[in-house]
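Quick illustration, no need to memorize.
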Amino acid sequence: MKIFTVLSLALLCLSCTGNHDELDDGRFFSFGNQSADWVIVNYWAEWCAPCRKEIPELNELNDFLMKDGSVIKVYGVNFDLLGREDLKRIAEKMNITFPNFLGDPSFMNSSSRPEVLPTTFLFDGSGGLVKEFLGPQTKEDLLEFIAKGLNSST
């Protein structure tokens, strides 16, 4: 009986952490089920003026194909952790075209929640954190950083 209880609790815990990786379109994210070479995760909020300013830059980076063939994917995390319907409404209002997590993604457990907005995290395609950027970023700055990393690794 104890084994059944322990297994039930373990399955419950696994299902709870999996929900953190649910996207606003109903899909679930994992580094294993995505094909991007670079993953950008951006924390934003509607009330954050610099966030609103950088959204068009991030929209342009989503599904971006670099000269070397590398693909960039962008994902958002609403700092206020809005529910699905509110998140969808605000994302449409702000013209956010990249997918958003419904909660803090489980792979972000290794770092604390941002204290500055916007905050942008850059991951390699396998989930290794490459860089944390504080404050608004431009498309050019992010592409330049990625290109420098590619040049230094070859």
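Residues 44 and 83 are 15 Å apart (CA to CA).
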